[in-house]
Amino acid sequence: MAAGDVMLELKDIHKSFFIGTPNEFEVLHGVNFTVREGEFVSIVGQSGSGKSTLMNIIGALDRPTTGEYTLDGVDIEKAKDHELSILRNKKIGFVFQTYNLIARTNAIKNVELPMMYAGVGHTERTERAKMLLEQVGMTNRMMHNPDELSGGQKQRVAIARAMANDPAIILADEPTGALDSATGRLIMDIFHELHEKQGKTIVLITHSPELSLETERIITLRDGDIRGESAGKWEQIKADMSVKTNEEEKAC
Ligand SMILES: Nc1ncnc2c1ncn2[C@@H]1O[C@H](COP(=O)(O)OP(=O)(O)O)[C@@H](O)[C@H]1O
Ligand SMILES: [Mg+2]
């Protein structure tokens, strides 16, 4: 796949949850968009707008109720569950707000885990884990367990883990949500570096218009619908998210 090729495509994606018969609650109401190889895209929306539901679909952790989703040429609807888990392991690097590292397991082993599932040999995966941890500035903390690391350090390990199998895309759901702003800044810098220096395709999911402004493309989600593609304009993003600006809030 070359830069600019379609990496993922969502066509008329609906997602409903059953909340006890006969009720069905539709969270996504026909979402359409495409992400191309090498893009750094954000999906921005308020809490409850359906971001994590959408992330679960993009990450093949969950299937849409209806609609078509193609990831790196694979039709998700047709793929069997075990094929989806292989696909996730090889093609997607997940980064979560809560890090989701394995407890009582050091940084190297955490980064090695996706490679172990992919069948990479011991020596090769240890070497690669060390290299990836070095890339995120964690050389001096490689033998530490998650409970001996700060939030920012844990997120660095999680990013190294996301890169383990050289995924087609990195999918990050509120990756700086639990961090102070200075630490969040360092984490965002790592994403920019992965994008600029390694050409990684990155989808950043966030409630923060400020963070979304750092990406090349901004897809705004409101109440389970795509409201628009804001071309990096603050007021437009706010309007699409229908968040009040500070001035409006003060006026209230
Ligand atoms: N498994 C589920 N069952 C029922 N409702 C759900 C489920 N997952 C999410 N929802 C609802 O879908 C809406 C969107 O949730 P979510 O995708 O987590 O939003 P966001 O990540 O933007 O905060 C919320 O109203 C939430 O309560
Ligand atoms: Mg969420």
Description of the structure:
- The strands form 2 sheets. This protein has a 6-stranded mixed β-sheet, with helices on both faces. A 4-stranded antiparallel β-sheet has the order 2-1-4-5, covered by helices on one side.
- Strand 9 and strand 10 (225-230) form a beta hairpin.
- The N and C termini lie far apart (51 Å).
- The model has no long low-confidence stretch (mean pLDDT 92).
- It has 252 residues and is α/β, with parallel strands linked by helices.
- The chain has 9 helices and 10 strands.
- Helix 3 (107-117) crosses helix 4 and helix 5 (151-162) runs parallel beside helix 6 (181-198).
- It has a single domain (40-59, 79-251), classed as P-loop containing nucleotide triphosphate hydrolases (Rossmann fold), CATH 3.40.50.300.
- Bound molecules: adenosine-5'-diphosphate and magnesium ion.
List its traits.
252 residues; alpha/beta; Rossmann fold; six-stranded mixed beta sheet; four-stranded antiparallel beta sheet; 37% helix; binds magnesium ion
Write a short abstract of this structure.
With 252 residues, the protein is α/β, with parallel strands linked by helices.
Which helices and strands, and how do they pair?
Elements: E1 6-18, E2 24-36, E3 40-45, H1 51-58, E4 66-71, E5 74-75, H2 81-91, E6 92-96, H3 107-117, H4 122-135, H5 151-162, E7 169-173, H6 181-198, E8 201-206, H7 209-212, E9 217-222, E10 225-230, H8 234-241, H9 246-251
Bound molecules: adenosine-5'-diphosphate and magnesium ion.
Residues 51-52 line the site of magnesium ion.
